[in-house]
Amino acid sequence: MREPTPTPEDDKTPDTDEEIERAFREAQIQRERQARERLERGVEEPVPPRRPNRSDLNAPVEPKTMRQSSRGYHNEGPQEVEDLIDGITFAARYLGSTQIWSDRNPSKNVRMLQAQEAVSRIKVPEDETQPSTEIDLSVSTEKIQVINATSQEVMMDHALRTISYIADIGTILVIMARRRPPRPQHEPGTEVTAGHRDKKQHKIICHVFEAEEAQLIAQSIGQCFQVAYQEFLRANGITEDHLSQMDYQEILNSQEIFHEDLEVFSNSENAKEVVIDKPKGEIMGLVIVESGWGSILPTVIIANMMHGGPAERSGKLNIGDQLMTINDTSLVGLPLHTCQGIIKGLKNHGKVRLNIVQCPPVTTVLVKRPDIKYQLGFSVQNGIICSLMRGGIAERGGVRVGHRIIEINGQSVVATAHEKIVSMLANSVGEIHMKTMPQSMYRLLTGQEQPIYI
């Protein structure tokens, strides 16, 4: 149900754009100072080896095995569970960092290409001196810290949940983390859209290190995710009875697919052809949003209508209606910005023909979960569904990415704290009834965003 680590949000984590950039500047200043000192000396002085904070770090590592930890569950990986919870420190050299834009869910191959690109930006040719800073890399189930080995000042501090990929390429280690952008400074109730990137993309920061134990460090960070998830299950009272893939598949096979779209689309009375007459030069007066990943037909939904505009005047359209075609052009599967462009192009038309499916603005979801040990298969952040496991019980129940949860089992959660919503879902069994709607539509209907009509 959750992303790699269930650690709750910590607003104090110093991983905002400004703080990372400040760390870059400080590290760069130190590297330049070290380079000047080496030039003034005229010779390279041997650097004495640093001792890691843990005496057993550089000892030979056992082959990767599955063994029982003292906390009562199986542990697969090179490190002891207790050590990962307390934190392990590795000696490494920090070479630099770079930023790239990335899709939110790129493939493993794409992530590796991104890591290689980061290395190519930072690593200098073999015949040149590589600027670097000696650091201690602290790894735990809570966070990853980059600490200056000389001053012991924290250069970077990332919550484990923000780490999106780790790559080891020989002795080079790349750690990629999602960046938290600074909160926009604008008046409440206004929408800032101009000049912004596609919301499906986000900025990631790639830190490049050099260490003899690069592979071991990467394995240890990966193991941290496993341990953090097991700790989450343990904290929520889930027993050590492990759920095999076969067990989960049997649960899926025993469930019927509940999807409000099935009922809506199978009823021919809900499909309508609407013809709207309007003066040329007048916009349609619509706001549309995506139906959300998980809907049977990916298309756009009417989220708002301009008072007195052609769409509202016609009396034939309602908020929640899904648009299938406009003037014989199908909108199914098209990106939101493409659909918006098609509607904007109707300004000079006097007659517009639309095929719609009448749907309520609120989506009904029914997830069947026979036992708490079966994962729901989706994650929630501040009441918004942000990821969905393909083929899981949540997808079969009609859960959609990008929707805000309005109600759980008859109880409104619009003003409920994130931790409370997660707890309600994590501890729910049997039939879980939810009502959701697209987050963009919710913000428009509640006045948190001003509509931009097209």
From TrEMBL:
Residues 86-258 form the PID domain. Residues 1-48 have a biased composition (Basic and acidic residues). GO terms for cellular component: perinuclear region of cytoplasm. SUPFAM superfamilies: PDZ domain-like, PH domain-like. Pfam families: PDZ (PF00595), PID (PF00640). SMART domains: PDZ, PTB. Residues 273-344, 364-440 form the PDZ domain. Its main location: cytoplasm. InterPro entries: APP-Binding (IPR051230), PDZ (IPR001478), PDZ_sf (IPR036034), PH-like_dom_sf (IPR011993), PTB/PI_dom (IPR006020). It is found in: Cytoplasm, Perinuclear region. It comes from the Eukaryota. Residues 1-78 are annotated as: Disordered. This is Amyloid-beta A4 precursor protein-binding family A member 3. The lineage of its organism: Eukaryota, Metazoa, Chordata, Cephalochordata, Leptocardii. The gene is LOC118409316.
